[in-house]
Design goal:
alpha/beta, three-stranded mixed beta sheet, 2-enoyl-CoA Hydratase, Chain A, domain 1, about 260 residues
């Protein structure tokens, strides 16, 4: 455990929980630094297969900590840019982590918390969770989190929720494609564990390559160069030890070695 995070690595799964329940897991510069360092470290662990990102207490993440915001009230432009850059690098550490990151969302998921959620690969939310891009209410904008939120909810939804700063429900978030699963609060952990088990059952190198595939190919024009690159990547996988083992296990009706 760090100052602000509860980190539990058991077997092939790491669970990273925001651990500031007294402020609904609102983040400050300490949380930002520790999240960036944690995901950078976990990304290099060869034994891990997936990471769960959640929060203790009544909320996933309520955005920025009020005390931290007060301390920034007198920042000049350079100080504000440096602070925002640290947040941007933290979000990138989560988004670019080669391991699948499963977000466990409950309670409030506001402002920067939306950025944390959007940087995950799979989102499971408890029914009753609420989402809000609240920055415009404060005369601000969700700039640093916008690349991830735009990809997660789509441009048309962002056009509305960026400018209205209104709350929306877990069911609405699922309808937008932002959230993948919505379950009863008491079923949240079971659904997260179910998705983790599905990931862990697959070839570890293939899972990382699949995540990279989405990052590299989403929204790209299907050019001859892109088609050639897709052929190269599947050839690499077929010729790899893991690919050969997986195919042989399937053909021989046995479990592959990684299970």
């Amino acid at each position: 455990m760090t100052t602000t995070l509860d980190i539990n690595t058991e077997g092939r799964i790491a669970r990273v929980y925001l651990n500031r329940p007294e402020v609904r897991n609102a983040f400050n510069d300490g949380v930002i630094t520790e999240l960036a360092d944690t995901f950078t470290r976990l990304a290099q662990d060869p034994d891990l297969r997936a990471i769960v990102l959640g929060g203790h207490g009544k909320a996933f993440c309520a955005g920025a900590d009020l005390a931290w915001m007060r301390s920034m009230a007198d920042y000049d432009w350079d100080q504000n840019r440096a602070d925002a850059t640290r947040l941007a690098e933290m979000l990138w550490a989560i988004h670019s982590c080669p391991l699948p990151v499963i977000g466990r969302i409950h309670g409030d998921c506001y402002a920067g918390g939306m950025g944390l959620a959007a940087a995950c690969d799979v989102l499971v939310a408890a029914d009753g969770a609420h989402f809000c891009l609240s920055e415009a209410r404060l005369g601000l904008l969700p700039a640093t989190i916008s690349p991830y939120v735009l990809r997660a909810m789509g441009e048309q939804a962002a056009r509305r929720y960026f400018v209205t700063a209104e709350r929306f429900s877990a069911a609405q978030a699922r309808g937008l494609g932002f959230v993948h699963e919505v379950v009863a609060p008491e079923a949240l952990d079971a659904k997260v564990d179910e998705i983790v088990a599905l990931v862990v059952a697959n070839g570890p190198a293939a899972v990382k390559a699949c995540k990279r595939l989405v990052h590299d190919f989403a929204n790209r024009e299907i050019t001859p160069e892109l088609r050639a690159e897709t052929a190269r990547r599947i050839a690499d996988a077929r010729a790899s030890d893991e690919g050969r083992e997986g195919v042989q296990a399937f053909l021989n009706k046995r479990e592959p070695a990684w299970r």
